[in-house]
Amino acid sequence: MTELVATACLMFTLTTTIIACLDSHEVDPKFLVPFVVFIITFLFLIVTVPLSGGHMNPLITFIATLKGLLTLSRALIYMLAQCMGSIIGFFIIKTVMEPKLVQIYSLGGCAISGIKHQEALLLEFSCTFVVLFIGMTLAFDKKKSKDLGLPVVCLVVAGAMGLVVFVSITVTGQPGYAGVGLNPARCLGSALLYGGPLWNGHWVFWVGPFLACMGYYAVSINLPKQGLS
Predict the structure, then answer these.
(1) Quick count: other Cβ atoms within 10 Å of Cβ 177?
(2) Quick one: how many helices (H) and strands (E) in the chain?
(3) φ, ψ for residue 150 (rounded to 5)?
(4) In this predicted structure, which of 34-38, 159-163, 174-178 has the lowest mean pLDDT?
(5) Residues 4, 82: contact at Cβ < 8 Å?
(6) Which of 78, 101, 153, 221 could cross-link 61 (Cys pair, CB 3.0–4.6 Å)?
(7) 190: Cβ contacts below 8 Å, ≥ 6 apart
(8) Spatial contact of 11 and 40, defined as CB atoms under 8 Å apart
(9) Given pLDDT bands bounded at 50, 70 and 90, which one contains residue 177?
(10) Which residue windows are transmembrane per the record (predicted)?
């Protein structure tokens, strides 16, 4: 229930805030998006990590399962809750948002615009891998997490997400590309509620991140347990 409610609230808060930034009169409003991702992600993590682990994303649940931190049955329940939460969040957005903004920003969903599918796939893989390597390596290390404390761990994870969103936006140079998805549940919820262009290349937002999860897992099992002393 925590994962469902948290994911729904995250989708609603994050998407509406990003659209508000993009619809502002700033010179280049899309550069506000990484800061929005960082701040909102941090707030949701600091609240939900003690409750359910603060996944709110099938990718985090998947990698936690690979590392033996979740049972398969619990992981499936988490993923189902996350997808349902995303659908609920985007349903609320579609209901309350001005129809003109819904059309302009495709409900704030994951869209591939201005770049090829293979380029988007490479970005999804690379950016997801960076988030996992920076954020999850720390988050899954119980000793380091305890030493640093929950706020610092959440700052690192949220910072990694904000960083890769910034990189994905700037590296393409395409004004119509809103950056990496990083969360297949978010992409699924918006596609189901809006449809149309959001189904174009939708597979990229699943295949790229899950390949990154498997790649990260293969690397992480060979990482040393302790650093140099």
Answers:
(1) 20
(2) 11, 0
(3) -60, -45
(4) 174-178
(5) yes
(6) 78
(7) 15, 86, 90, 106, 107, 108, 109, 110, 198
(8) no
(9) confident
(10) 31-54, 75-93, 121-140, 152-171, 203-223
Q: For tokens 């009169």, name the residue.
A: 25
The DSSP-derived string for 26-76 is -SSGGGGHHHHHHHHHHHHHHHHHHHH-S--SHHHHHHHHHTTSS-HHHHH
The tokens for 127 are: 């950016």
Residue 176 — φ and ψ, nearest 5°? -85, -5
Q: Are 70 and 3 in contact (CB under 8 A)?
A: no
Confidence of residue 228 (pLDDT cuts 50, 70, 90): very low
Domains and CATH numbers, the chain: 2-108+115-220 (1.20.1080.10)
Tokens linked to 58? 């099938």
Q: How far is CA 102 from CA 99, 114, 194, 200, 216, in A?
A: 5, 19, 9, 17, 36
Which tokens hold the place of 148? 């640093």
Which residue shows structure tokens 């994905």? 168
